[in-house]
Amino acid sequence: MDIVFKDVEHRYHTNTPFERRALYNMNLSIASGSYVAIIGHTGSGKSTLLQHLNGLLQPTNGTVHIGDQIITNAKKPKHLKPLRKKVGIVFQFPEHQLFEETVEKDICFGPVNFGIPEEQAKKMARELLPLVGLPEEVLTKSPFELSGGQMRRVAIAGVLAMEPEVIVLDEPTAGLDPQGRKEIMEMFYRLHQEKKLTTILVTHSMEDAAKYADEIVVMHRGTVVKTGTPKEIFREPNTLLEIGLDVPETILFQKKLEEKFGVTIDSPCLTMEEIVEEAKKLFAKVRKNDE
Amino acid sequence: MNSMIIGKYVPGTSIVHRMDPRSKLIMVFFYVFIVFLANNVETYAVLMIFTFSLILLSRIPLSFIIRGLKPIFLVILFTFLLHLFMTKEGELLYRLGWFEIYEQGVKQGVFISLRFLSLIIVTTLLTLTTTPIEVTDGVESLLSPLKKFNMPIHELALMMSISLRFIPTLMEETDKIMKAQTARGVDFSGGSFQERIKAIVSLLVPLFINSFKRAEELATAMEARGYRGGEGRTKFRLLTWKTADTALIVSLILLAIILFILRS
Amino acid sequence: MREIAVSVENVSFKYPNEANYAVKNVSFYVQEGEWLAIVGHNGSGKSTIAKLLNGLLRPESGVIKIFSTELNETTIWEIRKRVGMVFQNPDNQFVGTTVQDDVAFGLENNGVPRDEMVERVDEAIRLVKMEEFLEQEPHHLSGGQKQRVAIAGIIALQPDIIILDEATSMLDPKGRNEVLETVRDLKKKQKITVISITHDLEEVVKADRVIVMNKGEVLTQGTPEEIFLLGEQLEKIGLDLPFTVKLSNELKGAGFPLTTDHLTAEGLVEELWTLYSKM
């Protein structure tokens, strides 16, 4: 399912003194099967943007195409259920959405709402547990007996069980410890690769954006200021630094290295391996000159 | 719903805004009784002058109040019509078949409506010009003599102020959970009775659980900051009784006296 | 000689209805004016320690002393004045309806006279640079701003020790910087001891000393440099290593004869340059 935003604008509380423009002039296209990271400050419009992806919000102007569904401001769109099944959203702190008596029921809640037979949903729940890193015993437990990290995994399984074609992740690792962060990010990347799941990641972590995304969208004050591959985005780190965003530590290190050695490295380094390679090249040059 | 102004606060610096919440609370309390002194054209005229003077002093646009009270007007209209048709005293003014309107009916209808209206306006004016926390402080201060009888006045006031502080937080949270459940296929606006129940459960359970967790964490934070009940506590918020407050109470007494003299 | 601000001797604690000890026979000390980081994965007992230090939890055995005053029933309120805590969730520790009300809360609890209270509230709010928001309600503030207000509420009580109990873990990078900047600034201006319970690497790297917790016990303690030398051992218990430490290791693996694992990018670039020049 391709996703296209055309001149999208969103205003909250229209026609009241509290009117506020959260998005404007948004043009964006996300190809089916890609992994896109959206970066930007809190308040840059990221969360408003992601609520347009399954019709939780309608644009006040412009159009959003999601597959063959078109969402405009014209009328309250009906039959959004099929769309919502196809676009799963893992909200920030998704453990706050759990409510059923057992983990199994909670995982099945989404799929059953979308008309998947209960037996099939249960089967899916069982299959998903190892994927999200939970033991099978938790199925019959209350989600509220679990630790915070485990609750988050249950919530994620609940979204995955809907078998969406697109998954939207709003800072899925906020508040987790380093180990938990790594496990969750790796899991989504595996899913993306194995199931060709279109993945849209909203994140503050430049490392994650650089590591996993095919494409990065930079948002600032309600609109897109830049899009491109990680290499393209981080090639000119100054654009990001100017709007107060971080850049990956590899890039910062590269900058320092370049300054000290008085050289320019053509390709931005996004991994440590790349830095090691560049360092080797630098040192090799000297050796050559010596010979 | 959005235009409803009962319970809303409109920031301002008018003399009414700056009055001590205690004087305003006392005023509203006694006003409720004083209103019943009015029983003829003169007394109702005085009452309305008093009420509208208060609105003028508060510098809140009359149109804003009228718009905000629209839903109330329906109720007033209903009471008016009820009295209009049900009172069969005085001169007969109009007849159409079984439909009769008497002089007393019109009078009663207008009087009751005005009484109702002035009560609503004065109480609304209290909340329009006083922040909820000021109301809380005022209530706590006025009820503090009851502490002698072991009434938990401080605790009640603290509960009120914490509730006030958390209302916006809970609203945001409700919105978040609703969105998360909508994304999981819940339809909050329609569906069968059973589906609706399920939808509400999926909203309320997380909301309650999160609130309990909040309450627990808040209690811990309060304890860590040295909270151990009202005893020996000092107060940061200061209520100051000013000339305007005395003036308000005096004018209220004058109103009562005038009404008492003029009433028939 | 600097005074010992906190001393913890053989402290154990178990939550009711749980089989394992959350904190088992833990001993450590903190010097006056020091910045100590306590790290460990979720459930390692590090937050329990924070709560033990100002009497929110009582140890099953062992002794906790704050500036040589033993923590017990009679000293607890005095100690709470001296040990301020900033918690994880910015919303769930904001008691007042406005910024200044919240900062005043601790002072009200301790019966500080109003005139003095007003002064101390003003001063504390100025120290965390929130003076523009005096009358603001919490839902109009960002997470970082709320945490700064929480810090102001503690400073107003003029404590000797501030404990940051994962105080930055729910914040975005901007909020995190705001809070750390505020605490650093504060440490420059006042003689204050900071204990930060965290898994944020920046907080760890900038600390004077680090304690690593694992399964309720102190695994090791030392300067950040010493701690990160453990490398894989830390990763095994679920902790991350700073980028430059990892990069140093990678470079060593690729044959660069580095002498140490660097904690800063500057240090690493500097050594590379030295190696380069010698060639």
UniProtKB/TrEMBL annotation, chain A:
Domain ABC transporter: start-end pairs: 3-246
Keyword terms of this UniProt record: ATP-binding, Cell membrane, Membrane, Nucleotide-binding, Translocase, Transport
Predominant place of localization: membrane
PROSITE patterns for this protein: ABC_TRANSPORTER_1, ABC_TRANSPORTER_2
GO cellular component: ATP-binding cassette (ABC) transporter complex
Compartmental location: Cell membrane
Annotated function: ATP-binding (A) component of a common energy-coupling factor (ECF) ABC-transporter complex.
Full protein name: Energy-coupling factor transporter ATP-binding protein EcfA2
Species whose genome carries this gene: Paranoxybacillus vitaminiphilus
UniProtKB/TrEMBL annotation, chain B:
Keyword Membrane: yes
Originating species: Paranoxybacillus vitaminiphilus
Physiological role: Transmembrane (T) component of an energy-coupling factor (ECF) ABC-transporter complex. Unlike classic ABC transporters this ECF transporter provides the energy necessary to transport a number of different substrates.
Protein's name according to its UniProt entry: Energy-coupling factor transporter transmembrane protein EcfT
Pfam families: CbiQ
Keyword list, A-Z: Cell membrane, Membrane, Transmembrane, Transmembrane helix, Transport
Gene: ecfT
Family, as annotated: Belongs to the energy-coupling factor EcfT family.
Coiled coil: none
Any one GO MF annotation of this record: transmembrane transporter activity
Subcellular location: Cell membrane
GO cellular component, one term: plasma membrane
Chaperone is among the record's keywords: no
Subunit structure: Forms a stable energy-coupling factor (ECF) transporter complex composed of 2 membrane-embedded substrate-binding proteins (S component), 2 ATP-binding proteins (A component) and 2 transmembrane proteins (T component).
Transmembrane segments: 28-58, 64-85, 114-133, 243-262
Membrane topology: Multi-pass membrane protein
Automatic annotation (TrEMBL), chain C:
Subcellular location field: Cell membrane
Membrane topology note: Peripheral membrane protein
Domain ABC transporter: 6-240
Keywords, ordered alphabetically: ATP-binding, Cell membrane, Membrane, Nucleotide-binding, Translocase, Transport
Short name of any one Pfam family annotated for the protein: ABC_tran
One GO cellular component term noted in the UniProt record for this chain: ATP-binding cassette (ABC) transporter complex
Single GO MF descriptor: ATPase-coupled transmembrane transporter activity
Matches recorded under InterPro entries: AAA+_ATPase, ABC_transporter-like_ATP-bd, ABC_transporter-like_CS, ABC_transpr_CbiO/EcfA_su, ECF_ABC_transporter_ATP-bd, EcfA_1, P-loop_NTPase
UniProt record similarity statement: Belongs to the ABC transporter superfamily.
Identification of the protein by name: Energy-coupling factor transport system ATP-binding protein
Annotated organism of origin: Paranoxybacillus vitaminiphilus
